[in-house]
Amino acid sequence: MHQLKNSPQKRYEDFVSNYPNIYNRIPLYMIASYLGISRKTLTRVRGGK
């Protein structure tokens, strides 16, 4: 739960670096749920890349 103190951007970056082989193979709604953010926020965060 300490992860929730980080910004959505940081949580996503950490997720991608920790799980490089699966982040593009699972649905966005599942990633968003795991990160504790909405799918809309995840889409916005990913759009910055």
How would you characterize the overall build of this protein?
This is Crp/Fnr family transcriptional regulator. It is a single chain. The mean pLDDT is 89. The protein is 57% helix and 0% strand. The chain is globular, with a radius of gyration of 10 Å. It has 3 helices and no strands. The protein has 49 residues and is mostly helical.
How many helices? The count is 3
**What is the SS-derived class?**
mainly alpha
**Strands, total number:** 0
Order of helices and strands: HHH
Poorly predicted residue ranges: none
Alpha-carbon Rg, integer: 10 Å
Major β-sheet, in short? none
User: What proportion of the residues form beta strands (DSSP E)?
Assistant: under 5%
Residue-averaged pLDDT, rounded? 89
Which overall shape is indicated by the principal axes computed on the Cα atoms? Answer: globular
Helix content: 55-70%
How many structural domains does the protein architecture include? 1
Distance between the termini: 25 Å
Protein name: Crp/Fnr family transcriptional regulator
Give the SSE map.
Layout: H1 8-18, H2 28-35, H3 39-47
Helix pairs in contact: 2-3
Keywords for this entry:
mainly alpha, 49 residues
In summary, what is this structure?
With 49 residues, the chain is mostly helical. It contains three helices and no strands.
